Each structure stands twice: as C-alpha cells, then as structure tokens.
C-alpha cells in the first residue's frame, strides 16, 4: 500500500501546503523510503530539462529542480577545489598569512591524525629517527619515500574534498538535498578513505617484505663511513648491474645470513649503502668493514663471510685513508 503522504510530495515542493503540514512532511521524509523516491522523481530530471521543457506549469517545482541541478554542480566544484587545495596543504608551513595557513593546515592535520590511527606503529622512535633523512614528513612510511609522498599529498586532498562537499551540502536548499544524500556521501567517502588506506597498507607491507628478505635490490648508493662522517663512493644502478662484479656484489648482500636484530650504529667504520628495492622501498644498510656484520636500518642483522667481504672490498675499495 502506497504511503498516504506520497500524493502530497508535489504540493510540498511547490510550497502549497500549510506550514504545519510542510513541517510534518519534512519530518516524515527523513524516514519514508517511498516518499523519498517520489521526491527524487521530481528532482532528478536533469536530462528532461536538457531535452525538453517539463510538462508542468508550476514555477516553484521547476525552480526546485533547477536548484538541485545547480546545487549538484556547485557541490562537485567544491569537491574538486577542495581536492586541489588539499594536494598542496603539506606546504602550509611556508605560508606566512595566518588565515590561509590555517585553512591549508586543517586537512593536513586531519589527514595526519587519520593515518596515525592505522600507521602510527610505523613511525620511528625519536632516537632512531635522528640523522635519518628518508622518513618523510608524517613519518608513517619511513622506508618507502614515494609512498610517503603520496600519503602526504593524496590523503589531505581526500580530507579537504570531504570538508568542501559537506560545506556545499550545508549551503544548499535543505528541500533539495536531504539527509539521506548526506548519509550516502558519508558512506561513500568512508569507503574511499578505507580503500586508500588499504592501498597504502598493502604497498608498504609488500615493500617491507622485500626489504626483510633483501629481495629485489634494483640499485644502491654506496658511501664510505667513518664515525660521524660519510663520503660518496659509487652509484650502482640498473646499467651498472649489467657488470658482473656489481651483480655478484648484490647477490652476496642478498644471500647474507640473518643473525638476529641489532641497533643501527651511530658511529660507523665501513660501508653505508642506501638500497632501493623493486616495487618500492628504500633503506640504509651498514656493512662493517672488519667483521662483515651487516645491519639494516630496521634492526635486522646479517653476517657476510670473510671471503665474500674481501670480494666486496675489492669491488668497492678498501678502508678509507
């Protein structure tokens, strides 16, 4: 049986009903699916407006439909502008004007808070983060610089777009955009955000798995390290890996025997390698020139045999004089 209020929806849109009845229908629409559907039949006529005039003489109804179309366009524009603004919000610290600085900082800080719920465990402790320039701005993906950049760019953009669309809804005619539209938007936005965090989670864990297995090394920059100073030695990239000596060097590192966990040293006397992995991931690895002990920045420790260590020294060069 059809809802008794349904036949009054058109009069409601045309504002022909008494005020109390208008308020009663307003309240009724919040919970009645049938009446909401009838309301949308009148409002969702963008195609009809574009092709031919509506077969109604009611100026109020036509104005409501036009207002809905205009409101959708405005909300879409707000969302796009919010997304673009959010992409640049990480630069808020460079803005000297307080108002624009606050506007830009809001989506960034909200994104930082939201990501922190899922990824705060990834952040390096303060002691480990010192003198480590690869951890990024938020620090949630310290061993994946590209993922960190995407996180601090796209996440605030999603948040800013959400805020902008909510503002667009609030500024719209409440008879045109009902509560159910806002609920649908909130559900959709939540799904988008969860999918995005899932992508970040999957990509980072994939990178960590490769790092922990020393698998898929695609390039490395090698430095000689003495105490608190380092000096660039060689860059081993894709082209260099076609050379057998560098290819064998990478194989030796990949096949190193894991011996447990150790603290990454502050004072060094050996080689420090910034290693890039296929599929993402960048991490420093320290190789002691005397003992052959190899320590990855994440705390994993490995051992290279004396014979293989001598080969590495032969390829890279001996102790710095």
Describe this structure in words.
The protein is an alpha+beta fold and 321 residues long. 53% of the residues lie in helices and 15% in strands. It contains 11 helices and 7 strands. It has helices spanning 9-13, 19-29, 33-43, 46-51, 59-87, 98-119, 126-129, 145-170, 179-212, 244-254, 306-316, and strands spanning 217-227, 229-236, 257-261, 268-277, 282-288, 293-296, 300-303. A 7-stranded antiparallel sheet has the order 2-1-4-5-6-7-3. Helix 6 (98-119) packs across helix 8 (145-170) and helix 10 packs antiparallel against helix 11. The chain is elongated and about 95 Å long.
Compact summary:
This protein has helices at 9-13, 19-29, 33-43, 46-51, 59-87, 98-119, 126-129, 145-170, 179-212, 244-254, 306-316, and strands spanning 217-227, 229-236, 257-261, 268-277, 282-288, 293-296, 300-303. With 321 residues, it is α+β, with helices and mostly antiparallel strands. Helix 5 packs antiparallel against helix 8 and helix 6 (98-119) crosses helix 8.
């Amino acid at each position: 049986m059809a809802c008794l209020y349904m036949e009054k929806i058109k009069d409601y849109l045309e504002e022909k009903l008494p005020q109390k009845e208008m308020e009663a229908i307003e309240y009724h629409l919040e919970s009645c699916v049938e009446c909401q559907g009838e309301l949308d039949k009148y409002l969702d006529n963008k195609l009809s407006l574009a092709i031919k005039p509506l077969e109604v003489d009611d100026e109020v109804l036509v104005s409501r439909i036009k207002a809905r179309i205009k409101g959708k366009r405005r909300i879409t524009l707000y969302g796009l502008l919010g997304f673009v603004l959010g992409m640049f919000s990480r630069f808020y610290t460079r803005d000297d004007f307080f108002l624009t600085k606050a506007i830009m900082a809001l989506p960034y800080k909200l994104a930082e808070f939201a990501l922190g719920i899922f990824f705060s465990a990834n952040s390096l402790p303060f002691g480990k983060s010192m003198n480590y320039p690869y951890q990024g701005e938020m620090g949630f993906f310290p061993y994946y610089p590209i993922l960190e950049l995407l996180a601090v760019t796209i996440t605030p953009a999603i948040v800013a777009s959400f805020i902008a669309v909510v503002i667009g809804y609030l500024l719209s005619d409440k008879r045109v955009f009902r509560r159910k539209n806002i609920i649908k938007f909130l559900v959709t936005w939540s799904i988008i955000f969860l999918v995005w965090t899932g992508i970040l989670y999957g990509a980072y864990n994939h990178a960590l798995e490769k790092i922990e297995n020393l698998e898929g090394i695609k390039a490395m920059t090698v430095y000689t390290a003495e105490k608190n100073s380092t000096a660039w030695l060689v860059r081993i990239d894709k082209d260099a890996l076609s050379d057998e000596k560098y290819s064998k060097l990478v194989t030796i590192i990949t096949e190193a025997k894991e011996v447990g966990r150790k603290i990454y040293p502050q004072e060094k006397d050996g080689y420090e390698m910034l290693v890039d992995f296929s599929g993402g991931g960048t991490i420093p690895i320290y190789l002691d020139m005397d003992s052959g002990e190899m320590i990855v920045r994440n705390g994993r420790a490995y051992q290279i045999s004396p014979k293989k260590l001598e080969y590495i020294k032969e390829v890279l060069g001996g102790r710095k004089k």
